[in-house]
Amino acid sequence: MPVKVGDKAPDFSLPDQDRNLRRLSDYRGKKVVLVFFPGAFTSVCTKEMCTFRDSLSQFSKLNAEVIGISVNDPVTLKAFAEHNKLGFTLLSDYSREVAKKYAGLYEDFLGLKGYSVAKRSVFIIDRDGVVRYAWISEDAGKEPDYREVAAALEKIS
């Protein structure tokens, strides 16, 4: 069952691109934009993460932190972040547990039997840890509506 608007965002602990454990609860008191993406260095994911990178100043003005999450390992995520100069935290959900809780998985991704990745999705979590926006795509090639994400964020005081 995916996470819905109004739900308390499930807490988690995942390693970031520097292998430091990060908990969602560490961000309590801030607005968080959680962006699940299928895979580092893929064309649509690169475009999506770079679009979020290019919007960081807008998110910062709204007191929001952007956090990207994929099933890639921390080493790959570090290379991806450096290559694209992302400037925000990427978390490794290598066990796929967090993606399963939030949005689910694309199974047999890229036609590879048994290979699953996080569904492309965006969740906005308010300062109290409540989900205020949720978007989950069944199509891995579809990007979120970035204006809709920004507008949802602006509505949260």
Mean model confidence by pLDDT = 95
**Gyration radius, rounded:** 14 Å
Physical arrangement of strands within the biggest beta sheet: 5-4-3-8-9
N-C termini distance: 28 Å
Structural class: alpha/beta
How many distinct helices?
A: 5
Q: Can you tell me the CATH class?
A: Alpha Beta
How many individual domains?
A: 1
Stretches where pLDDT is under 50 for at least 5 consecutive residues are none
Question: At CATH's second level, what is the architecture?
Answer: 3-Layer(aba) Sandwich
Shape descriptor reads: globular
CATH superfamily: Glutaredoxin
Largest sheet: 5 strands, mixed
Q: Helix fraction?
A: 25-40%
Strand content: 15-25%
CATH topology: Glutaredoxin
What's the count of strands? 9
Order of helices and strands: EEEHHEHEHEEEEH
Please provide a written account of the structure:
This protein is α/β, with parallel strands linked by helices and 157 residues long. It has a single domain, classed as Glutaredoxin (3-Layer(aba) Sandwich), CATH 3.40.30. Helices cover 28% and strands 24% of the residues. The protein is built from five helices and nine strands; from the N terminus they run E-E-E-H-H-E-H-E-H-E-E-E-E-H. The chain has helices at residues 43-54, 56-61, 74-84, 97-102, 146-154, and strands spanning 13-15, 21-23, 31-36, 64-70, 89-92, 105-106, 117-118, 121-125, 131-136. A five-stranded mixed sheet has the order 5-4-3-8-9. A two-stranded antiparallel ribbon has the order 1-2. Strands 6-7 form a two-stranded antiparallel sheet. The two termini are 28 Å apart. 32% of the residues are buried. The mean pLDDT is 95.
